[in-house]
Amino acid sequence: MTTPQVIPGRTRPLLFIGSGLSRAIGIRSWTDLLREVAEISSVPASDRNEVYRLTNAPGSEYSAADILATAIGERALRGEISAILKHEQTEIANSPGVTKWFRAIDGTDPAGVITTNWDTLLEDSCAGLHPLKWPRDDELLKHFLRRGEPFLLYIHGNIKDEDLVVTSEHRTSVENRLKLDVTLQQLLVNHYTFVIGYGFPDVHIVKAFEKAHSYAGTGEQISYIIDRESATKKAFPPSGSIVGRFSDFSEFQAALNEMANLFDPSVRLLQISEARSADELRAAVSPQVYNSVTTSSLCDAIRKNRNPEQITELAANLILDDPENAQTSGILSTVLSQIPELWKPDQSTLLHLDNLASREMRDDNLQLIGIIEPLSFALGMKGSYSRHRDYLCRVIDSYSWRNADEKRIRSYYGRADVRINAYERHHKDSRRTGMLLAHDITRLVSALESGYSATEKLFPQLDGAIDILARFGEFTAVERMSQEVDQLKQREADLHQEDVLKWKAV
Question: Is the CB of residue 235 less than 8 Å from the CB of residue 209?
Fold first, then answer.
């Protein structure tokens, strides 16, 4: 078995969620489920009484399940439990009292969620989580990790597939797989982990945490939120961890917010000044949110560095090494586009980055527009004008590319006035020359189409951008943008005329 690699500084949290959360929102416990199955199934009275006895003895749930599996069959046991949970889940799924718990969890922006729970409330309530099953979906898990997309990993099965880990035999199978597969340990090592509603009743899970803890080398790598009912006397949480407890939603939210604040990813940007390798730069950048605040802070940190050219060189290399990581490579591409004076790439680096942007545009890879757009602009700022020209013509000609860029830029800047102010700064930026001055043309059109009222600012910028396109011979683009701008000007004139007529009528 290989040893998990420790990657320091992965501060986007990993959540490990147990049955304490499900119980808090109204899903019955494992022991209650076993008792229910014993009552509704054709189980001999002696077996039923033994199930009752064992479910009153903490830690004997697997033994109770073994009795039921012998009496009614393993498949029937899984089916009965799944049917009960599906009914309960349907009853409570849309309750406001339930959805607020999942909104709070979603608000932590997790790298992913690991759960021992069988219900699928998390999957149904948090649309951004990609549901996966361990160990079947290991390759998909790696795919989503590379792309920075959040996942939901079931390690004890779920009620949709009715493949629940219920009996001692099932548990032994999981234990044996964990001895050979370091996936779970790798995830725990490389992320700060918040454990929610889990009291560590499973020996195989405890062992995975113990190994991860020994590899990580710090109790602060693993932190805990444990509901009041799940207080544990086991070796976990280890010394140095943080423990929060909750009995209701307000306490849960307070504990969750406290832990999230302790590991604010923006603090990692302070490490930029000490970054000497691509891994150290990745550790500082990968937890960040891809928005204008992050890239501005990152640019400021690089400017203050004693050797900013080294950081920008590392950034370019990271983009080439991990071109499918839309978040990290997108942030770094944007940084290179904003501080080109501190980026001194050699021709080989420029050529490889140019080929990267060209390939993704040729493949029509809209999912990576957050890399392609700023990278094309950064290349243009370093004299590779053809790639930027190709990108600009593409986004003018293709509504799918234009819409993808608009969606990204809304997320990147946030409020409309912040976006408009940014376009005005770009217009006055003396570093922009040639077709780089027309870069925001489709964004200006989108702003006007969405009803932004500062036409006295935007129309002159649009007219200037169209003149630049004409100067460089892009007449197809000129014709298209001229038609769109003329329509917007006519709409503005019609609205003005309506206002005049209303004023006269008054």
Answer: no
